[in-house]
Every structure is written in structure tokens, then in C-alpha cells.
Design a protein that fits this description.
The complex is a heterodimer of chains A (143) and B (411). With 143 residues, chain A is an alpha/beta fold. Helices cover 22% and strands 31% of the residues of chain A. Chain A is built from three helices and nine strands, in the order E-E-E-E-E-H-E-H-E-H-E-E. Chain A has helices at 69-79, 93-106, 117-122, and strands at 5-13, 15-23, 34-35, 40-41, 57-60, 85-88, 112-114, 128-133, 137-142. Chain A has a seven-stranded mixed barrel with strand order 1-7-6-5-2-8-9. Chain A has a two-stranded antiparallel sheet with strand order 3-4. In chain A, helix 1 packs parallel to helix 2 (93-106). Chain B is globular, with a radius of gyration of 21 Å. Chain B is of the alpha/beta class and 411 residues long. In chain B, helix 9 links the parallel strand 7 and strand 8. In chain B, the strands form four sheets. In chain B, strands 12-11-10-13-14 form a five-stranded parallel β-sheet, sandwiched between helices. In chain B, strands 8-7-6-9 form a four-stranded parallel β-sheet. Chain B has a three-stranded parallel β-sheet with strand order 3-2-4. Chain B has 16 helices and 14 strands. Classes of the chains: A alpha/beta (143), B alpha/beta (411). At the A-B interface, helix 1 and helix 2 of A face helix 2, helix 3, helix 9 and helix 15 of B.
Chain lengths: 143, 411
């Protein structure tokens, strides 16, 4: 059995989460790309169309497209169908505000972490991972 | 972050509880984006008025109160349904009620009921160099690229927080160094791609988004007479296939009179040359319809049609009548102006039905029959299959008209 592996990153939105990771091969716009009712990717142009991301630690290059992705993230949190955490290579302002408001309004932490591109590719997926985002630093641990 | 007196006053609640709550969110947001300080904005455009579920209502209600009022001129984006013609959509009465209530919340906060995704088509427009907080991806990219005003890529919620405080973190595209091009995109002219000009701009936008992702690019080789409507289509497509919030077109857009002006002297840009096959490839990916297949509808106005675009459509229909539904989205203000112009008559004879307040891919429009929806909008073709489950075929406006007349896919 492999030893736990730990990866560092920058905390954009704090919080802790533990769950199965899913790495997306392309950026995803949550609005128009993710259905908060089914928890799945609905963007027909996305390579992982149909994949469930609710209840998982989503590792992806970044967000994409619509300003409404913040609203879709909040609605997914209200429905309990949200990604547990977002691990991004690019700090996406739309996802950051969505996660901040989820904490402010519903008290649900959706940690958002920025990592180097190499880390994005190295975090095991699918695998159980633990995400800990403090005020500035964050870690992702494969358990 | 460095806080000025106004920021401290906002955080201390001196401008009321709503502004305080908004400023607290903006502070955490600014820290996440590593902004050094806050700056004033001249206007805001709010996308959060589009109903996605009860959470949107929960959010706006958290700000409502006697003293809650936006501090800068604030316009509103589209909504989930056309409140003037709700019967043109498969919208439940509950959705219409919830959307009305959400709109009411934003109106109580002092936002103007513009209800358009193309706020740049109304006056006054942001001035060159002016800082604004404009959400709605196509509005953000337009205000940055075509007007040279400065907005970062704002999402829902940040828009209202910015409006209530009049402040935003000095991050992203508010900063001069982040507005320089990191990518030079060389493109073949429309004639070399054998595409109608409007289809070429739609394809260029889609390619730009796929190539640049969120990087700022300068496009070299676009027609020097590229129009605002063409750049609007380009930006909307690029903000759908990618996260483009600013692009430059050499010799066309206000920050790109020369390559030296727009490039970073310190950092060599990435260079990409697109070929005519790339344009034809995107056109084929966004139009998988075969000749002779049934057309269900013709949808245009994503982003909202301008008066000039209506004039072009009036010429293109050339006295013909459509055999299918023709839905064109625009703002209430432009719809009203259309009523008073004589040249609009061919549009009504063709069968154009105006949709206001919304877009035709948010809530499914009430269409009879299955089949392809033809559209000149790459943004519509990109999103509609996922959001309303409709098969979309991107093509030039002229070809959309031909297909609508025949009720079939024709060349």
C-alpha cells in the first residue's frame, strides 16, 4: 500500500473536505455545464459530459464561461449537490465568490484551492482525498 | 489589503447593514485574489437577477432593508423568463412568480430594470479607462475589449456587493499590467476561410476561447472595419468556449493601435496562427445538421440584438415568410424603438416574434415540433444543447433565413 501523499496549494476559500477526487480534463462552466439537480456535467462539449461531480473533490484547470456559475454553485449547495471542494490551477473569481457566499449564507464550506499545474496532474483521481484550506495555505492529502 | 477611510467606514456599518455585509464579502474576495487595495467603480451590471433557484432569493433577501441601496448606477441582466410574454416559454407559474420576486428584490435595492445582457447598447456607456463592475460574461468582455473600460470577470453576488459599496478590489483586469496580451493570434481573413463574415466572427470567438482560455490575446488579421456587432459576437463566443474577459484586435480595439502598445515588453507572447481549416472545423462542430433535415426554429439575439442587427435581418429576409418559429431576443428598450421604424415591416411579415427580458436558452421556448434550431450565435449553439436540450446548428444569418423559409436544413 502506498504511503499517503501530500500536496500544497494556496487557499482561496477556506474549509475542510474529504471525499473521492475527480479530475476534469477541461475547464467547466458550472452554469450551462453542470446541473445542480442531478449533480452531473451537462455541457455536451465537455470531455466528461455525464460525469457526476456532486459530492466529490473536483480537480480542474479552471472555471469557464458564465458569470452565473456562482449562482449555480450556491444553488447546488442549497440542494446538497455541490462539489465538496474545488482544486484549480487558475484562481477563478466567479467560483471564489460562489463559495464565499455559500459559507456566508448557508454556513457550508466549499474550500477552493489554487495549485501549480504539476500538482493538478499529480493528485490521484479517482481516490479518497482530504482537503484542508486554512487562511492562506492549503493541503491535499491522498489517504 | 490596504483599507482607505471609506472602506473602513463601510466595514464598520456606517453605510448600513447591507453595505457592511457586502464589504465583508468583498474583503475576503479581494484577499483571495491578492488585491492590494480597493478602488471606486462608476457603474455595475448585475447578473444575479437571473433566477436559478431559491438560493438567489435567499441571497438578495439577506441585503434588503430600509437603508439598502446601490451606491452607483446599476443595470440588470436578463431573467429566466420573458415577463412580458411568459406564454412564449415552457415556464411554470411558480417560476414566473419566483423570477418576479427576485427582480423585485433588485429593484428595491435601486437597480434599473434594463433587463438586457447587452447593457452597452444603451446610453450612457462606460468611458475609456473607467473602472466598472460588470457581470454577464459577454458584457464584461465587451466593456473591456470594445470600450476600453475596466471590469474584472465578475460573477453573480460580487456584482451586487460592488454596487452596494461602490468599491471593488483592484485585481485582474482593473490593473494595467494584466490587460496586456500574452497571446498573439494570427488569423486568416473571412474570404480565405470561404465563410460569411458573421459566421467567421462567431468561429473566431469560439477558437479564441479554446486557444486563450483566460489569457488576454491580441488578434492580428481581422478586418479593419470590424463592427461593434461583430466584436460582440466574437466576445460572447470566446466567453463561452473559454473564460475570455478581454481581447484586443490590432488596429480595431481601443487599446491595440500597435503591437508595442498591447504587448508586454518584458514577456515574450505565445504565438498561434490559425488556418482556414480551424474555422471550418469549428463551424462543423457547432453545426452537425445534414441537408434536408427538419428545422424547428430560428433563434437569434444572443447577445440581445441591436437595432443594426434588426436592420440587417430585415434586409436578409427580403420579403419572404418563415415556415418555422422565429424568436429574436432583445431589450424592452430596443423592442420599443423597433415599433416606430418603418423598415421593420419585413421582420413581422417574415414571422419574427420578439423575446424580451431573457434569452431563448434559459427556459425552453414553447416550440412546436422537434428538429434543429438554427442560430447565428455561437454562444447559443454552445449552451442550448445542455441547458434546454435542443439540437443547435450554427450558421450565417443569411443561411438561417433560408433554412427558416424552407423549414429544412439547406446550404
Amino acid at each position: 500500500m502506498n504511503a499517503a501523499r501530500e500536496f500544497g496549494g494556496r487557499s482561496l476559500v477556506g474549509g475542510a473536505a474529504r471525499g473521492e477526487s475527480v479530475r476534469l480534463d477541461a475547464p467547466l462552466s458550472l452554469w450551462g455545464g453542470f446541473d445542480p439537480v442531478s449533480g452531473r456535467i451537462i455541457d455536451v462539449h465537455h470531455p466528461q459530459h455525464g460525469v457526476r461531480i456532486a459530492g466529490r473533490v473536483v480537480i480542474m484547470p479552471g472555471g469557464r464561461g458564465s458569470s452565473s456559475s456562482a449562482s449555480v454553485l450556491l444553488e447546488a449547495v442549497r440542494l446538497g449537490q455541490h462539489p465538496l471542494a474545488l482544486v484549480l490551477a487558475e484562481p477563478d473569481p466567479v467560483l471564489v465568490i460562489g463559495a464565499l457566499v455559500a459559507g456566508d449564507l448557508y454556513g457550508v464550506a466549499v474550500p477552493v484551492i489554487q495549485v501549480e499545474t504539476a500538482v493538478l496532474a499529480a493528485v490521484p483521481s479517482p481516490a479518497t482525498v482530504r482537503v484542508d484550506a486554512a487562511r492562506r495555505a492549503a493541503t491535499i492529502i491522498a489517504v | 489589503m490596504f483599507l482607505e477611510a471609506i472602506d473602513k467606514a463601510l466595514l464598520a456599518g456606517e453605510f448600513g447593514a447591507a453595505a457592511q455585509r457586502a464589504m465583508r464579502l468583498l474583503l475576503r474576495y479581494g484577499e483571495a485574489l491578492e488585491a492590494p487595495r480597493f478602488i471606486d467603480i462608476a457603474s455595475a451590471h448585475i447578473d444575479g437577477c437571473l433566477y436559478h433557484g431559491p438560493s438567489g432569493l435567499d441571497f438578495v433577501r439577506a441585503f434588503l432593508g430600509t437603508d439598502a441601496r446601490v451606491r452607483v448606477p446599476t443595470s440588470l441582466n436578463v431573467m429566466a423568463v420573458d415577463l412580458v410574454h411568459p406564454e412564449r416559454f415552457e415556464a411554470s407559474p411558480a417560476l414566473v412568480d419566483d423570477q418576479r420576486e427576485l427582480l423585485q428584490g433588485y429593484l428595491e435595492l435601486g437597480c434599473a430594470p434594463t433587463l438586457t445582457c447587452a447593457p452597452y447598447q444603451r446610453l450612457p456607456r462606460p468611458a475609456f479607462g473607467e473602472h466598472v463592475a460588470w457581470a454577464e460574461s459577454n458584457a464584461t468582455v465587451f466593456v473591456n475589449s470594445c470600450l476600453g473600460a475596466r471590469s474584472d470577470r465578475y460573477g453573480d453576488f460580487t456584482d451586487l456587493c460592488a454596487a452596494l459599496t461602490g468599491r471593488v478590489p483592484e485585481a485582474g483586469l482593473h490593473r494595467s499590467e494584466n490587460r496586456r496580451a500574452r497571446l498573439v493570434l494570427r488569423v486568416p481573413a473571412p474570404e480565405r476561410c470561404a465563410q460569411d463574415r458573421d459566421l467567421w466572427f462567431a468561429c473566431l470567438g469560439y477558437l479564441l476561447g479554446e486557444t486563450a482560455h483566460d489569457r488576454v490575446a491580441v488578434i492580428v488579421g481581422a478586418p479593419p472595419d470590424s463592427s461593434e456587432d461583430e466584436l460582440k459576437a466574437l466576445g460572447a463566443a470566446a466567453a463561452s468556449s473559454g473564460s475570455v474577459a478581454l481581447f484586443h484586435v490590432l488596429g480595431v480595439t481601443p487599446e491595440a493601435s500597435s503591437l508595442e502598445d498591447v504587448l508586454d515588453a518584458e514577456q515574450a507572447p505565445r504565438e498561434v496562427a490559425l488556418a482556414p481549416e480551424d474555422f471550418r472545423g469549428v463551424a462543423a462542430r457547432l453545426c452537425r445538421a445534414s441537408e434536408g433535415e427538419v428545422v424547428a426554429a430560428f433563434c437569434a439575439g444572443t447577445p440581445h440584438f441591436s437595432l443594426d442587427e434588426f436592420r440587417r435581418l430585415a434586409v436578409a429576409v427580403d420579403g419572404r415568410r418563415a415556415a418555422v418559429e422565429v424568436l429574436v431576443s432583445t431589450s424592452r428598450a430596443i423592442a420599443e424603438r423597433l415599433e416606430s421604424v418603418s423598415w421593420a415591416e419585413p421582420l413581422w411579415r417574415f414571422g419574427v416574434r420578439l423575446i424580451v427580458d431573457t434569452c431563448t436558452y434559459l427556459t425552453p421556448p414553447a416550440l412546436t415540433g422537434d428538429g434543429w434550431v438554427v442560430t447565428p450565435s455561437a454562444k447559443w449553439a454552445h449552451y442550448a444543447p445542455g441547458t434546454i436540450g435542443r439540437r443547435a446548428a450554427l450558421m450565417s444569418l443569411e443561411r438561417c433565413v433560408r433554412c427558416a423559409v424552407r423549414g429544412r436544413i439547406v446550404p
